[in-house]
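=== RUN LOG ===
request id: a7f3
mode: sequence -> structure
chains: 1
length: 222
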Amino acid sequence: MATASIVRRDQEIQTDVLAELRWDHSVHANEIGVAVKDGVVTLTGKVDSYLKKWRADEAAHRVVGVTAVANDIEVRTIGERTDTDIAAAAVNALKWNAGIPAEKIQVTVDKGWVTLKGEVEWQYQKEEAERSVRRLWGVKGVSNLIMLKPLASPTDLKKKIENALIRTAEVDAKNIAVEVQGTKAILKGKVHSWAEKQEAARTAWLAPGITSVDNQITVTIF
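=== RESULT ===
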């Protein structure tokens, strides 16, 4: 009976992931294969941009019951674009985004894979930098190694994160415990979905000075 339950649950998750992929118009669901085992989703197929691969990953993570995603989708761009051209486009994309201190970010491109380094003050700036380059034609992947500067004490950071979680409608704050060690936030507790777990982490990242988030929250039905 236990085995049948797991198979049924995985089949339901697979159905929901496929539906979520079809719901996101930026992703062509017919290009992507979905397999599920014990709540772990494996995505396969070929797409013509890194943005589609990334959006497929996000879509799978939004589905209730998903515990992890193995993204094996291959990016195959139409035509060739040199690393030099991609690097130049990435630098320009960063400059055109007013919310990013482009002068503090270094760009390296190797066979279509973009690596970002440097220092910024806010997590949203780090995220915006990656968002700006992931949609560029020819990009096959992004490694975001941008570091954050510490701006507040651990006590202040803990209080800011706790208050932010309470304000967030998408998160049941009473089920989440927050610890701060230096500039590292540690989240513990239980939530109902992967989306809620991700929202809690996103909220912690918004605290000024947080340089890493250890999201130990577990997804469970309770």
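=== NOTES ===
The chain has six helices and twelve strands.
The radius of gyration is 19 Å.
=== END ===
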